[in-house]
Specification:
It is an enzyme of class 3 (hydrolase). The protein is of the alpha/beta class. 32% of the residues lie in helices and 17% in strands. The protein contains twelve helices and twelve strands. Strands 1-2-4-3-5-6-9-10 form an eight-stranded mixed β-sheet. A two-stranded antiparallel ribbon has the order 7-8. A hairpin with a 2-residue loop joins strand 11 and strand 12. The N and C termini lie far apart (61 Å).
Length: 345
């Protein structure tokens, strides 16, 4: 396949004519012309993740060939452990991490088959395997006595976060935040998922074209976030001489239903403070509606955003996370109860 076969996108958003004065007597004669608007390659050029996270790390799981890539930010407070959705990467949380790290630590993991993580079977996206991966990474990083952990999961990652939380095997789990995924809506959408995946653009002549496609197509609404996160979702195909999506989601269909079946009941059964962030109000199923009325979790509808809330409005997302930590008195060692003095460690 040659690059001439690739779908082309316009090189410039707009054409801007610089204004120049023809008279030296004009009061504006010495005013410099307005700079031209950025062309496509500049506007959609990748941004370095180091502007948002502090470091990256490869977590090697003992007795396996699995190596999971994580991005880290912050030095104090509880650990906000972030799990991205299908087709995304840990850098999906980059812009929000730059604000969260002021009061908490952030760790964003590339899940199996995504980003820079490398495993023995990148196509095994079963919920059991994904949960085992998260628990293995946390144990490898923190041992048997981790700091307070707040699990944050978007879409598929939200399902993984819920399944990990309900197992009750993670020491010092202090909170659970699920981003825009509800069992009923997710299961209903699965019948359309293959069609959606097959209709998306698959080949890009450059990383900039892929970033532009994600914004123009509406999957992401924040250009800066796309400039950080999209490059990590691509790989270069030497045979086709172009960039393609790294995650082969089309080949993992047999696992999709397992991500979401029983999710609402598991979410409600998770024994920690819970926050559900939604991009629309029509997404609560019966179990969650009853649970919300009973005060079992906090829900916030985030306006003017798409599915990837953490990317579209990163500052608002970060504020919601930090408010959740504050409201539930989650400190670096777990839930802080006023008046209770912790033993020295």
């Amino acid at each position: 396949m040659s690059t001439s076969d690739l779908t082309s996108l316009p090189e410039n958003e707009e054409q801007h004519e610089q204004q120049q004065s023809s008279s030296s007597d004009s009061a504006f004669a010495n005013v410099p012309p307005r700079p031209p608007l950025l062309n496509t390659s500049d506007k959609y050029s990748p941004l370095d993740w180091l502007s948002y996270f502090d470091q990256e790390e490869d977590v090697c799981i003992p007795d396996t060939e699995n190596v999971f890539h994580v991005y880290k930010a912050g030095t104090e407070g509880p650990v906000i452990f972030c799990l991205h959705g299908g087709g995304y990467s840990g850098l999906s949380f980059a812009l929000s991490a730059s604000k969260i790290k002021e009061k908490a630590r952030v760790v964003a993991m590339d899940l199996r088959g995504h980003g820079k993580s490398v495993t023995e079977n990148d196509l095994d996206l079963s919920i059991e395997t994904l949960c085992a991966d998260v628990l293995a990474v946390l144990k490898t990083m923190y041992g048997d006595s981790p700091p307070a952990i707040v699990l944050v999961g978007h879409s598929m990652g939200g399902s993984v976060a819920v399944h990990v939380a309900v197992k009750k095997t993670l020491p010092n789990l202090a909170g659970l935040i699920v981003v825009d995924v509800v069992e009923g809506t997710a299961l209903a959408s699965l019948v359309h998922m293959q069609k959606i995946l097959s209709s998306r653009m698959k080949h890009f002549s450059s990383v900039e074209k892929a970033i532009q496609w994600s914004v123009k197509g509406g999957s992401l609404r924040n250009i800066d976030s796309a400039r950080v996160s999209i490059p990590a979702t691509l790989k270069f195909d030497d045979s086709k001489k172009c960039y393609v999506h790294q995650a082969c989601l089309e080949e993992t269909e047999k696992y999709w239903r397992g991500w979401y079946e029983g999710l609402s009941e598991k979410y409600l059964a998770s024994p920690v403070p819970k926050l559900l962030l939604l991009a629309g109000t029509d997404r609560l199923d019966r179990a969650l509606t009853i649970g919300q009325m009973q005060g079992k979790f906090q829900m916030v509808v985030v306006r003017h955003t798409g599915h990837a809330i953490q990317e579209d409005v990163p500052e608002e997302f970060a504020t919601l996370v930090l408010n959740f930590i504050s409201r539930n008195r989650i400190g670096p060692n777990g839930i802080e109860i006023p008046g209770l003095r912790r033993p020295s460690q």
